[in-house]
């Protein structure tokens, strides 16, 4: 079933389905009718003697020039060609598909003034799995993600390069012809409408929110494994304690950990000894719900911003419902840029506390009776010593990536665009943060599983199921082995959601 793109907002799930999983799209009849109605108004304005920005004038700092009829098609082509000025590595396919879907969503509101055939061509490229080649650098996150969007508009014109469904790079004209898609000859307002939006940064925000929501549950899963592997206590996760500080994310995280660690023979056997000798777990275990909860609450705020943006028509100028063509600042990426930076901060901190929990397993002074570095024969074997180094290297990188991009601004367009959001840059670094967080949590899970297997008692049923799934591809404790493939395999099980599924099959869906 195709995703309907219409007057109403897309969901984050819709964006992920189209961007990552290749779902088809279709324009609703309501959207096509609104697009056609607004276009008729734009064409009337194009014939009027008074200049209208974006319709019969130049752009940005050149907006004062009135453009005669015979140069307007050239104006739109020139705009797209000149703005397709990206450079650097290619941007990932899922990001470009998200960007194109979100530009199509704005076109479908009928507030941009394009013809229906322009919107239909965007849908056709998505459905044919034709992906414009877009480059890393070129967006300041203001006046839209200009260069990335321009590279997509260029492909719609039948120019530039694209990747086909099999990943082959082809000239856009050839790929469109092979798919029986007619390139668009842009007319008044259309070039501007195709490049003026926050679609790239918003697309990356939607993808990150989807992934981080799952990784938040993995943080609770890892904690539930670690508290058992270290023979700690789950008393700190009891709900009445979290009612005293009623943050929603904190309560959800604590409930998850408690559910995952319940009915644990390891913990039952450890309680008398814990009360006599330990009294309290370290902060990285005891305060896990507070950190993971703050992470969750940040996701909630970012989701609110994303959903508002998904329901927006971001263009400049915009055609209002009563037919006015109005300049505005809705293309400014600040609201999106701020939450992208905020998510990078909490991703770094969630990774940081995970690394600290992992490190406790490796130190005989803190691992409560396990061998040094969980080695089979310490001195001969190094166990998971260097796995923690790998975690530490990633966490250090995530801390650097947590430095906000949105506080930077470099004026452009002859000082007409004198404050920009750098939202695209914030989104690009967040993608690295999401990847790093998943890898750090995978190392904690891998290490905790090894420690649990070295204990005499069994873990909780949920964690037993997780370890059983892990052991399908990663062997249990033993002499030193080539460790990188085991980390890679665990990471894949985290990213795919398979370990989470194994746990939820025992305890039900986690919050």
UniProtKB/TrEMBL annotation:
Enzyme class: lyase
Keyword line: Histidine metabolism, Lyase
Source taxon at top rank: Bacteria
GO (cellular component) term, any one: cytoplasm
Pathway participation: Amino-acid degradation; L-histidine degradation into L-glutamate; N-formimidoyl-L-glutamate from L-histidine: step 1/3
Keyword Lyase appears in the UniProt entry: yes
Catalytic activity, as annotated: L-histidine = trans-urocanate + NH4(+)
Enzyme Commission identifier(s): 4.3.1.3
Localization: Cytoplasm
Primary subcellular site in the record, as a coarse category: cytoplasm
One Pfam family named in its UniProt record: Lyase_aromatic
Coiled coil: none
GO molecular function: histidine ammonia-lyase activity
Similarity annotation: Belongs to the PAL/histidase family.
UniProt name for this protein: Histidine ammonia-lyase
Organism: Corynebacterium epidermidicanis
